[in-house]
Design goal:
This protein is an alpha/beta fold. It has 14 helices and 21 strands. It has helices spanning 17-31, 56-75, 85-89, 91-97, 113-125, 173-176, 185-197, 220-228, 248-256, 273-278, 285-298, 317-330, 347-351, 358-381, and strands at 8-13, 36-37, 46-51, 79-84, 103-105, 132-134, 155-159, 161-162, 181-182, 202-206, 214-215, 218-219, 235-239, 263-265, 303-310, 334-339, 387-395, 402-407, 412-416, 427-435, 439-443. α8 packs parallel to α9 (248-256) and α12 runs parallel beside α14 (358-381).
């Protein structure tokens, strides 16, 4: 690179927490190879988009951003790269429809990025537009030796494994991130120690199905406790477990360890057995409800959240009603509710038509969201008058005069800075005096 200054990279991240973590790996790999990063894309020599192929919204955002870059690329030399799941799953579409894309790198190919970007820059200097691509899946890559380049914050994401072996029929992850590979536990605990040394007070362990973590005689419960025992870490979270294999040892760890948060995100996706079978979820409605009862019997104060898909292939009104009734029965604290969107290469896309009209999908999502909003508000009202431990995160979204943080159960708490001045990373006690469906409003304890 014949430049007096290091190439400036602007990195944008779309989608899930695993993508946030992968972007930290990308920053680390590029920084140690001489690249620098900028938040201003107008100053960037390279613009990279770390993409998600799971949800249609994230997918559409990437195409919108690519359209915005066309004008910028006409004005000056610029390398545009698409990383992550879209690069892996939609490589043909991206190479055919998006000639402005210079670099494609899948989730297992980030070590190749410095070379790919360098070649793309050199080819532009020479007037040769040659796309650089690395999209092979790996059976072994875990990036265990790469220390993530984390920005300031309270929470440190740590991936404990990569890939997925579940092959849920709606999900593209096994095709974009490959098969399951668990990292060495010593490396994960060392990464938690490094995060603690840098001031991070919370760690969130990531995996497509953390229950499947296995390395020698280590299972996920043992790993979770080991990370929670790291000095300086105040809270440990994890996402996401699969209901099909939630071991007793994991529940015991959540219940008994004071620094493991009493919050479990337990995706259900549907409340109907036929739809669950079509989704290849490998559990029944009754088995799921039995697990919920087991969890709540062990830890009555647990905060349960979930994921739901409305309008899956051939879902009838009555089958949708089963999902509605399940939300009424379980009464989650919160739910992430999505319309089914067909993803290329998935089992569902190959086997069944996406035959539920968009209007019906939207109606079902709205009905579930309205129900969940009422339940969430009722759940939050139970905290009125109670005192909670809150991990301070920073300014509230709506006002710089307010601060926000999270309860142990991962519920957002907002309070006046004037009444309780506190810095990010502090653990403070607050008394809840009001609430909405998504937020608890608090003040100093009386």
């Amino acid at each position: 690179m014949n430049q007096q200054r290091p190439p400036q990279v602007h990195l944008e991240t779309f989608g899930c927490q695993m993508n946030e973590y992968d972007s930290e790996l990308v920053r680390s790999l590029l920084t140690r190879d001489g690249f620098a990063f900028t938040d201003d894309r107008e100053r960037a020599d390279v613009i990279l988009m770390n993409t998600c192929a799971i949800r249609e919204n994230a997918h559409n955002k990437v195409y919108t951003h690519l359209s915005d870059l066309r004008a910028l690329k006409r004005q000056r030399p610029l390398v545009v790269g698409v990383l992550g799941c879209m690069a892996q799953n939609l490589k043909e579409e991206l190479t055919e429809k998006e000639p402005l894309v210079d670099v494609l790198a899948g989730p297992d190919s980030y070590r190749h990025l410095p070379g790919l970007i360098t070649k793309a820059m050199e080819s532009q200097e020479q007037g040769e537009l040659r796309r650089q691509m690395a999209v092979d899946l790996s059976e072994y890559e875990t990036y265990d030796d790469v220390a993530p380049d984390r920005r300031d914050g309270v929470n440190a994401w740590i991936a404990v494994m990569r890939g997925c072996d579940n092959f849920c029929s709606f999900c593209v992850v096994p095709y974009t991130r490959g098969r399951e590979r668990s990292r060495e536990p010593e490396g994960i605990v060392a990464e938690a120690r490094l995060a603690a040394a840098k001031g991070f007070k919370q760690v969130t362990l990531l995996g497509q199905n953390v229950n499947s973590y296995r390395h020698g005689d280590w299972d996920f419960a043992r790993l979770l406790v080991a990370v929670a025992d790291v000095p300086g870490i105040e809270r440990v979270r994890f996402t996401s477990p699969h209901p099909k294999d939630f071991p007793a040892a994991l529940l015991e760890a959540v219940v008994s360890h004071p620094r493991i948060c009493k919050h479990i995100h337990l995706p259900v996706q549907s409340g109907n057995d036929r739809i669950l079978n079509l989704m290849s979820r490998t559990y029944s409605r009754s088995a799921y409800l039995g697990l919920v009862d087991q969890i709540r019997s062990s830890c009555p104060d647990i905060v349960l959240t979930t994921d739901v898909i409305a309008g899956f292939c051939s879902e009838s009104d009555e089958e949708f009603s089963d999902t509605y009734r399940l939300l009424e029965e379980v009464r989650y604290h919160a739910a992430f509710i999505f319309k089914y969107s067909e993803r290329k290469n998935t089992i569902a896309a190959r086997k069944w038509p996406d035959d539920i009209p968009e209007t019906v999908k939207s109606e079902r999502v709205t009905a579930l969201a309205d129900l969940q909003r009422r339940i969430s508000h009722e759940r939050n009202r139970a905290y009125l008058g109670t005192t909670l431990s809150v991990l301070v995160e920073g300014d509230a979204k709506r006002s710089s005069l307010q601060s926000k943080g999270k309860s142990d159960g991962n519920i957002t708490v907002v309070w006046s800075k004037k009444s309780v001045p506190a810095d990010p990373g502090q653990m403070i006690q607050l008394s809840v005096y009001d609430c909405s469906a998504s937020t608890l409003y608090a003040a100093p304890p009386a």
